[in-house]
Amino acid sequence: MVSSRFCALNITLGKFFCVLALLMMGFVTPAAATSAEDVLHKWFSLSLSLIRHTPTYTPPVASRGLAYLGVTAYEAVASGSSKLQSLGRQLTGLNALPVREVGQSYDEAVVLDVALAGVMRELFGNTGPSGQQAISRLEDELKKAALSGGSTAETLARSEAYGRALAKQIGDWADGDGGATIENMGFPWTYELTKGPEHWVPTNPLARQQQVPLLPKWGKNRPFAMPAGTSCPLPPPHPYSEDPSSAFYKEAYETYQTAKTLTPEQKTIAFFWADDAMASPTPAGHWVSIVLQIAEHDHLSLEQQVDALARLGVAMADAFIGCWHEKYRYDLIRPITYIRRVISPDWQPFILTPPFPEYPSGHSTQSGAAATVLAAIFGDPYPFSDRTRERDGAVPRSFNGFIDAAKEAGISRLYGGIHFRAAIERGYEQGKCIGGYATSLKTWR
Question: Which domain holds residue 398?
Answer without folding.
Answer: 188-439
